[in-house]
Amino acid sequence: MIQCYYGTGKGKTTAAIGQAIRLAGANKRVLFIQFLKDGNSSEIKMLERCGIKVLFKEMPQMFVDMQDPKMIKQVSNMENELFDMIDESYDAIVLDEILDVITLSLINEGKVYDLLVKMKDSHEIILTGRMPSHKIKPILDYSSEIKKHKHPFDLGIKARHGIEY
Q1: φ, ψ for residue 115 (rounded to 5)?
Q2: In this structure, are residues 17 and 10 in contact, taking their beta carbons and an 8 Å threshold?
Q3: Residues forming beta bridges with residue 6, ordered by sequence position
Q4: Could you tell me the residue range of the domain that residue 109 belongs to?
Q5: 10-20 burial string, b = 16+ CB within 10 Å, else e?
Q6: Is 13 contained in some domain?
Q7: pLDDT at residue number 154
Q8: Residue 6 phi, psi dihedral angles, 5° rounding
Q9: Which is nearest to 91 in space by CA: 53, 35, 58?
Q10: How many domains does the chain have?
Q11: Is residue 156 part of a domain?
Q12: How far apart are CA 150 and CA 141, in angstroms?
């Protein structure tokens, strides 16, 4: 089945982490792939302690400059390499921020869609990001929107270690 946590609010990755830990606690093999993240998130060491395999690529900078063709190509190559590391021997696969990778056209949506359709009956797949595309939405089995009503970032407060990353 495919679960999706999306929206503008804080907690999408946190929800996916909770589900990954629950799956690991049920003796399921879990692969957690973080797209568009640099490996500095605090959850990585805890996920690994729970026996969850975590994959990521170190980003060239915190945010992708979508006006820089060289950076777009570099990040697109990195994200495609990560996607190609999906190992179907795992029971569950978390694709953290994959929806944003699709929205930014850093990966071919059809490639993602085809793999999701192929795996949805045999694996638990968890997607996160801002918004599932019109193509992805119909194949979701769970869909939870997390909306922002208020966030410290709106007041100029930077991301805090252990809270946002």
Answers
A1: -70, -40
A2: no
A3: 129, 145
A4: 2-148
A5: eebbeebbebb
A6: yes
A7: 85
A8: -140, 165
A9: 53
A10: 1
A11: no
A12: 28
Count Cα neighbours of 83 within 13 Å in the Cβ-side half-sphere: 24
Let me know how long the chain is.
Answer: 165
- pLDDT tens by residue, the chain, 165 residues: 999 999 999 999 999 999 999 999 999 999 999 999 988 888 999 999 999 999 999 888 878 888 999 999 999 999 999 999 999 999 999 999 999 999 999 999 999 999 999 999 999 999 999 999 999 999 999 999 999 988 888 888 888 888 888
Residues near 147 by beta carbon (within 8 Å), at least 6 away in sequence: 7, 8, 9
Q: Full-prediction pTM beyond 0.85?
A: yes
The alpha carbons of the chain give a radius of gyration, in whole angstroms, of 15
Tokens of residue 102, six digits: 């699709």
Tokens 């999701």 — which residue?
Answer: 116
